[in-house]
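Teaching assistant here, posting this on the class forum so everyone can see the example we discussed in section. The complex has four components, and the goal was to see what a joint structure prediction looks like when all of them are supplied at once.
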Amino acid sequence: MKEVEKSIDPQLWHACAGSMVQIPPLNSTVFYFPQGHAEHSLGSVNFPSSSRIPPLIFCRVSSLKFLADSETDEVYAKIKLVPIPANEIDFEDNNLSLNSVGSDSESEKPASFAKTLTQSDANNGGGFSVPRYCAETIFPRLDYTADPPVQTVVAKDVHGEIWKFRHIYRGTPRRHLLTTGWSTFVNQKKLVAGDSIVFLRAQDGDLCVGIRRAKKGIGGGNEYPSSGWNSNNGSCVTGNPFGGFSCFLREEENKMARNGNMNLNSYGSFNSSGNTRGNGGRVKPEMVLEAVALAASGKPFEVVYYPRASTPEFCVKASAVKAAMRVHWLCGMRFKMAFETEDSSRISWFMGTISSVQVADPISWPNSPWRLLQ
Amino acid sequence: MKEVEKSIDPQLWHACAGSMVQIPPLNSTVFYFPQGHAEHSLGSVNFPSSSRIPPLIFCRVSSLKFLADSETDEVYAKIKLVPIPANEIDFEDNNLSLNSVGSDSESEKPASFAKTLTQSDANNGGGFSVPRYCAETIFPRLDYTADPPVQTVVAKDVHGEIWKFRHIYRGTPRRHLLTTGWSTFVNQKKLVAGDSIVFLRAQDGDLCVGIRRAKKGIGGGNEYPSSGWNSNNGSCVTGNPFGGFSCFLREEENKMARNGNMNLNSYGSFNSSGNTRGNGGRVKPEMVLEAVALAASGKPFEVVYYPRASTPEFCVKASAVKAAMRVHWLCGMRFKMAFETEDSSRISWFMGTISSVQVADPISWPNSPWRLLQ
DNA sequence: GTGACTTGTCGGCCTTTCCGACAATCAGA
DNA sequence: TCTGATTGTCGGAAAGGCCGACAAGTCAC
């Protein structure tokens, strides 16, 4: 499946992964959470009880590969980590303040747009309804003087393969549609309603197209949480501490400009345990065990990370962790948390109150900060 | 148009060019005919009257590139020639006897088949009627036990691009058809009735597909000559002298085996002046002038050759020319000449009688053997 | 010449795709 | 809450493509 590990364009990678996903930069320092890595795996990971594994390991990122599954187009990353001995720890090399979290690399961010496929998009009607914003911002400029305005849109997928779509502006009321070429794309990529499509205008002007598989079964992806989260106003707002815990604001700038401000409605999809329909290629338990063993003994190791909105990252920027640790999390404390909706068309906030502060699995992972917040 | 000059598989090249087209081997010696080169050009070439240009120049082939037009898929060759001074002439390095003409490289010849597209093939019925012979010899073996027997045929074009066709054996009476994928191919390649398609099974087992554009306007390609050629029996048969004057027998071996022997009916297409519908890329007069100027001054030069069945070659194997010269062409002498039909499905023979021996253009090209035979 | 085989063309029918109508939903006032 | 903008879904219509029937053309005897 991964005969040739060809790195893909990082910008396209990030667009496909979603704006909430963050990968630590090359040579930066991170904390590696074996427990998080285990949760990231498909099966259950049984750590040998004989050896005590540290809950978090300080590492440096020595290599970074942005990859895409050759079959499913799902993006993933391979990160090589080198553990750093305790006496060499220095948090200062990543000087990210709380406020600057999320503002890095904003300048080089290309315009992108994601949409979750509706039944009409995916069912063989043969067409795709293009949100106006996407058509006007991402697609090549359409000549509206023609009747009807039509053009051929050419887009490259993560493998560099070229797809052509007929883009037409028609109907009453007028709307943007992709017609010819779309059904071929849907069939080839085996897209179903609930999957997302990502359009991105690269810096060289080329249009790229990526896909995000729906997390759950066919037609899924819009299940709302049955938990007791409610829309609420909060006063005690902290900068979001865990750089990877779905708490990272990073929406398209143009989207920001368009919406003007954030709405505070309780809306969004929240699936705490990611689970793919994908054909495979996910992380296997053995790989986790191997990585953890190497990490524990201070040797360089490699981890494979499949980005999932709402799935915790297990390699977190050292500075972010440190910042989080500085906050004294207490019962009753209220916090604000950003969620990206499935199609990244908007970002919502959950306002919550800390109900309890407890270690998730006190037996296996004493003193671990992992999942301290539920 | 020719950003990257990527040589294509010589076998596919020859299959596309047609079995009548012969390219001299690398390092062999040839005679270069400026007059023939001029005729090969699109426009009319006005040679400067000041300089006397020799009618034929002895050269060595120093480089050979088999190319295909990136737009039209038409094949052409670039041949680098180095003139050889008169005192170094040696005919002996190409020891081709009269009888062996056409028998070289026969062993390495892959199975190929060409068919001229009918209206039904080209018109948007969406299907292609595959001649039984082609399906059974060139295509992958079909499982006839299935009902109906179906497979997907994958073929590479001259650019290495992959095309897929549904190959089905159905109808009453049963016949082989290409359905799904065919109309896409026709549209992309802008094929019309009269164009030819070439299937070739390469030595590595891969199936290749090439095209040959019809010579004349749309729907053409089957005009029969209005000349006085008639079917006839001949007694004085010479081996064919001009290696490139559409006189070269080189049919598929399997075809030979199938037909058993040659039929002598007067049948075939004969267009003495080739003319493409092609979008361009043909030889420009300036290029001819440049080549001729270099050649005349003994410097290395390059010629571009667009193979056309029934179009004279202007670089002819030295040994073939010498052999031809040895024959005393006289009025009333009868000769035999092979013609390839448009779709190379068969080869016919014209039996002719020499009506006159004369130099084509005595003023410009005194003593030139070029077009001595009309 | 005759019969068997091959294959070009046609009309019927089924599938795919394109289209505007209409309505549900959303954003902003 | 109301209003306008956006876009999801539907059914009709058109186009594309697959099919066997039939017959014209070829070939072998």
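For the discussion questions: Helices of chain B lie at 10-17, 34-40, 119-122, 132-137, 182-189, 253-259, 285-296, 318-326. Residues 118-121, 123, 125, 129-132, 171, 173, 175-176 of chain B lie near DNA strand C (CB under 10 Å from a C1'). Think about how each of these relates to the inputs above.
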